[in-house]
Task: structure prediction
Amino acid sequence: MKLTIQRATILAAIVIFVGLPLSFYALGDAPRRSLLKEAISLATLIAFAAMLGQFFMARSNTWLLSVFKPPQIQKVHKYIAYTAVTVILLHPALIVLPRALEGGVRPWDAFVTMITTLDNLGLVLGLVAWVLLLVLVLTAYFRKPIIKRLATHYRGWRYTHGGLATAFTLLALWHAIALGRHTDPRMSALFIVLALIGFAMLAKLYWGAPSRPTAPNPVQKGAAS
Amino acid sequence: MTTHEDNAAPTRRDFIALSGASAGLAAIGAAGWAQNAAEIDAESFTNTDHATDVLVIGGGMAGLFAAVKAHDEGAAVMIVSKGRLGASGLTPFGKGFFVFDPKTESGSIDDFVDTVSRSALGTNNPVYTRQVAEHSRDRAAELQSWGYFDQTLAHRPFMRPIEDRDIPLLERVTITHLIKEDGRIAGAAGFRLDAEETITIRAKSVILCTGAGGFKPNGFPLGDLTHDGSVMAYRIGAKITGKEWNDGHSTRVDHPAATFDGWGDMFERVPSTNGVDVHHDLGVDMNYRAYALGNPVSGGPGAPQAETPVAGGPFVPEEFQRNFDSPPGGDGPPPGAGEGGAPGGPPPGFGAGANVGGASAGMAVHKSEGLVPINDRCASTVPGLYAAGDALGSHMSGGIYTQIGSSLAGSAVQGAIAGEAAADYASGRAASVIPDARLAQIRDQILAPLRREAGYGPAWVTQTLQGVMIPNFVLYVKKASMMQAALAYIEELRDHHAPMLRAANLHELRLAWETRNMILSAEMKLRASLFRTESRCSHYRLDYPEVDDANWRVWINIFRGEDGTMQLEKQPFGTWPAQG
Amino acid sequence: MTIKSINGCIGCGECVKSCPCDVIRMDHGKAVITYPADCQICHLCRMYCPVDAIEMSPEKSIPVVVPWG
Result:
């Protein structure tokens, strides 16, 4: 099989957005639980990484536009959105549902306790992020009528979608680092770096000016070349 | 009335054995005498004053029903609990609830009471045995309606009737004192675990639902039960009974302290009900086997039976002798019976493997050890003071485990009866006035361990107590010389360690009070066991191995004499105590 | 180590309240294993935890006194 630029890109994406979280999970020292619970944890980690990946599968990634055709990118962006968003939206339920299979607190009771712990900042951030994601996904689904009604049409839509995505990512990331079982410093650093690059690309697209990323940025270099 | 005197002096060998048991304790991290690295300032404590008609102390099965029924009888009620409602004491771990259903039982309630009395060799109080059978079905129905039989954890179902009735609930409060004024109960006092605050609760009547206790042993989830209720009641003049009986549960040799693991999946089970199933479950027999033949001891459902017959040992009536041949989950007693029904043998889920006794060291048989009841309504010898469940020495089962699942059921039934009785007592009665000086004195006592600049660490004293009291040759296989030796140790702890316990924080303050209570309970257990010069049910003496019906068809009551010393008296089976 | 570790704590305090032996305390919004020597390994904290954050071990952190050798 020839290593075309397309294949290399896909491979790199898989390594960064799946391989790294998986290996950081494996290296982490959070205790292993049942197969089901670990599978759910992994699915959530990969889903969140994939959500970060969405920033790279967008118009903002000019370099990618030179490798793949925009409709191709759009399609993948959509499919990943459907699957990853489903996992993330189910994330609160997925935390408590396995308890139905064991003695102890019942899933619904656990759920109520969880979402009413409002004195915990990390938890409140997660709740707000969840609502933002719901708005993000609903607006994306109904984008056609929305775009029609927006005075600024497509440009306004882009700001809405990108803005919501950025806000969600910020809050969700903060939430994950504050509370996450697997977000040790290594995993947190990975997510932060990916998010910052994504934000930077988006900023560059919106304001045209080159942004000042805080981390070394190979993708940016690629985009500049 | 007899004052206890036993002159058998401990032999030198006894002393060596005892010191051996506590040797090396200094090396295990719990500092003995040391400076008090106080983390909080005793002078910064505030006090909160509460008042109610009926105060329920304890948040287990008995406390729940005591509060609900006292409220429904028209009293203002308050619950105070060391832990969380439904998540402290032994209630969270009992899963079997005995229900006598006349529709499905082949025998009558009379038959049931007779069977229990035969197994218990007369040690049970038939009035209380009958009560559990008569009321268990109603209590189970109420629990059912609160969702208790729908889930593993009891806190939420227990909260339903409490929230419906708006009953105030103080959780994570350690009660250290009962207050008596003008010859009757006047309230209680203690401190909060989460704030620098002492608590005073004035009450017209008090119901102790404080459970029994142990020596914080390993292998049984009673680390928070240290006989607090009965020791506080003893200090204000209540009579205490049943201290000579022994719960004989064992635990695994591997990870003996892992109570969850030792009980298989029982702690995760959803509670269920069971019908009449009367046993004579000892546990002491296993201790005797280990004492006579050495280790390893296996036993219990599914475990291979020991081949070597052992001579002597505790007496089991022929009618109730059973072997544990049936495989786990087979035709034997329902595995769910567990702690609530408390078979004396090894808990379910053990299978084959080496066990070691002493899991519940310091605890007597459920319902046998606690305040002496003066009637069938859970009243103690102190006017206005009631007790229910394991805090009441009702001898519902007798000095042995008889009916499976009756522990939880008995707590529910007695809680309800005590609740109604206490509400009746409080009705129309004015609250006693507690002088401010008395309250100030109590607050000083509560906080004293925090103020000590140096003292004994409560953990060290507890471990020393465990080293003296847990070995099977002290309270499981008893003889006068060894008990005298142990008593000498305990008196030392009582006189020279309990008054010098230190506490650096609120956690240690609780440990200090628990340690004091355990020391007094140990003294009671030794004195009662020395006093009963026969063997019966779970009380087994090597020097008096026979059942002695001529002299000992009696319960033993303990009370504080006017000179402050521990006094013992006999109360014949089937009678109520002399009022005085 | 009795109660072994807490991962993914949301600070709801259920474990603190449901521990019979006062082993766990809150510190800066998270449950912390504060007095492990008193843990009776009963798993109530684990069972009450809404987010399954608690990992248990059957090992007691202090030597155990048993009645015979």
Chain C has one domain: 3-56. The domain at 3-56 of chain C is CATH 3.30.70.20 (Alpha-Beta Plaits).
